[in-house]
User: What shape does this take?
Amino acid sequence: MLTGSDLLSKVKELGDVSKSDLVRAAGYVSTKKDGGERLNFTAFYEALLEAKGMSLGATGVTGVGKGGRKLSYVATVQGNGNLLIGKAYTALLDLKPGDDFEIKLGRKQIRLIPAGSNEDDED
Assistant: This one.
C-alpha cells in the first residue's frame, strides 16, 4: 500500500481513472474468504488525506467523539436544566452503565467522584 509522497505521485500519474482502479493501483486491496478482491476505499482515502497533511487524529477513542470529531471538553446546560456529559467522555474513562458517583459542589465547579473511592485519588 502506497503512502505519503508515493501515494500522491501515483494519484497524479494515473490522472482520470475510476476510483476503483485508483485504489487498486495504490495497493489498497485485500482478499476475501471466497478468494474475491476487496477494495479498501476507507484506508485509501485516510492515507490520501494524511499524505496531503490532513490527519484524521489518533486512532482509538482518545480525544475523539462520534464521527471523528474532536472533543471540546465543554458542556452546556440544556433547556430543562440537565447537564449532559456524553458517551465519548464516559468512554474515555471506561465508565459503564450503573457506575455510581458522588457529586461534590465547589464555588464554581462540579466534581464527580466514583463512589467508594478516596477523594484524593486523582488519575
Remarks:
- Residues 76 and 83 are 6 Å apart (CA to CA).
- The chain has a mean pLDDT of 82.
- The first strand starts at residue 29 and ends at 31.
